[in-house]
């Protein structure tokens, strides 16, 4: 078990680090316009983060000890297809969630 002092030290340090990272963008750059090349690059952040978060759960799910899961594979496929068709990340994510939650009832 972790010591209470060590736990709260880690929580406070991580909180301060998170605040510093956010302040560096919002506090220091909040009143200045970002360069066009940086704004164009930041548009792809969500598109890059979503696959990075989802891919390990689809390709190597801990729940099945690494065996492919039909529900996860189908949900990932639906997410990609809806994302490519609609060009809207929210619709793609919602379609994937609905598929992931609905497929076990059908199988």
Number of helices: 5
Beta-strand fraction estimate: under 5%
Number of β-strand runs: 0
Spans of 5+ residues with little confidence (pLDDT < 50)?
Answer: none
The run of helices and strands is HHHHH
Which outline best applies? Answer: flat
Task: Indicate how many domains the architecture comprises.
Answer: 2
Global structural class: mainly alpha
Characterize the largest beta sheet: strand count, sense, and whether it forms a barrel: none
**Could you tell me the radius of gyration in angstroms?**
20 Å
Distance between the termini: 41 Å
Can you give the helix content as a percent range?
over 70%
Mean pLDDT across every amino acid position: 87
Description:
The chain is an all-alpha fold and 107 residues long. The chain folds into two domains: 1-32; 44-106, no CATH class. It contains five helices and no strands. It has helices at residues 4-29, 36-42, 45-59, 70-86, 89-106. Helix 4 (70-86) runs antiparallel to helix 5. The model has no long low-confidence stretch (mean pLDDT 87).
């Amino acid at each position: 078990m972790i010591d209470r002092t060590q736990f709260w030290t880690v929580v406070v340090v991580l909180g301060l680090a998170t605040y510093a990272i956010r302040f560096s963008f919002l506090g220091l750059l909040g009143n200045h316009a970002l360069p066009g090349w940086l704004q164009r690059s930041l548009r792809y952040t969500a598109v890059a983060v979503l696959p990075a978060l989802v891919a390990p759960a689809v390709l190597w799910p801990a729940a099945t000890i690494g065996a492919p899961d039909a529900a996860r594979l189908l949900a990932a496929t639906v997410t990609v297809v809806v994302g490519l068709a609609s060009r809207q990340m929210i619709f793609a994510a919602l379609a994937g969630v609905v598929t992931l939650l609905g497929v076990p009832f059908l199988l």
